TrEMBL record:
Gene Ontology biological-process entries: negative regulation of DNA-templated transcription
Protein name: IclR family transcriptional regulator
Source organism of this protein record: Natrinema ejinorense
Domain HTH iclR-type: 10-69
Alphabetized InterPro entries for the sequence: ArsR-like_HTH, GAF-like_dom_sf, HTH_MetabolicPath_Reg, Tscrpt_reg_IclR_C, Tscrpt_reg_IclR_N, WH-like_DNA-bd_sf, WH_DNA-bd_sf
Keyword DNA-binding found: yes
Length: 255
């Protein structure tokens, strides 16, 4: 099979996953709601839900279905497999307490950034990010800190797959600008988000490298643009987030 040829997929499994994603986003729903949203027949949705119910992946309350607690077990298993979760959590907690802002750690999977852990300090802003949520990499400091340490070919493939969607006037939307920015990040050692995803929110992130020289993920500090200015934004916080990245790197060797 060539690299450009997609493998055969099973449509029924795809429908099941669509249902799971829909229930995750909507907490609970009736068969008619799910069918209408996904463009499937009520009979098809009923069969898939019956299978999920039989295997304890959903629960039913009256006419509504919602995801079961079984996903907690799966999630904990994924965290344990990573091997660095506890190290990340400890350092993110400490950095959030120290800088009083929102601190987050993310990893790349399937060309998207996935939040692994987050903690807010006393003055932290509330954002839509949540553990497990996936984000485009080109428009957040976490993502750019990771991409900066990938081979160009890998970055090109990620852009081919996900594009460079714009969110604000500051979002990078061309390959030329992206690769110029990534080169600067490699030289500087940390990445900035200049209100590229959310207007009024700035972030700074540093990559976390593994013993094999591969990037494991990135850690960031986020705050309102009115506080993220001057030497604090350009020097103090980058120094703090880089130090925390180094702590995670060192401690992950023994985790």
């Amino acid at each position: 099979m060539s690299e450009t040829t997609k493998p055969r997929t099973i449509q029924a499994v795809g429908i099941t996953l669509e249902i799971i994603d829909f229930l995750h986003e909507n907490d609970s729903a009736r068969i008619t709601e799910i069918a209408a949203e996904l463009g499937r027949s009520k009979g098809t949705i009923h069969c898939h839900l019956a299978t999920l119910l039989e295997n304890e992946y959903v629960v039913r309350n009256g006419e509504e279905y919602q995801l079961s607690l079984r996903y907690l077990h799966l999630g904990e298993g994924v965290k344990d497999r990573l091997g660095i979760y506890d190290v990340v959590a400890d350092e993110v907690d400490e950095l959030a307490s120290e800088c009083n802002e929102l601190v987050q750690f993310a990893m790349e999977e399937h060309g998207r950034g996935v939040y692994l852990y987050k903690k807010g300090g006393d003055q932290a802003v509330q954002t839509a990010s949540s553990v497990g949520k996936r984000e485009y990499l080109h428009c957040i400091s976490l993502g750019k800190a990771i991409l900066a340490h990938y081979p160009r070919e890998r970055v090109e493939k990620i852009v081919d797959r996900h594009g460079l969607p714009g969110y604000t006037d500051q979002t990078i939307t061309t390959r030329e600008e992206l690769f110029e920015n990534l080169e600067t990040i490699r030289e500087r050692g940390h990445a900035f988000d200049e209100e590229e995803k959310i207007e009024g929110l700035r972030c700074v992130a540093a990559p976390v490298m593994g013993t094999d020289g591969q990037v494991l993920g990135a850690i960031s500090i986020s705050g309102p643009s009115r506080r993220m200015t001057g030497d604090r934004y350009r020097e103090e916080l980058p120094n703090k987030v880089t130090r925390s990245a180094n702590v995670i790197e060192i401690n992950s060797k023994f985790s």
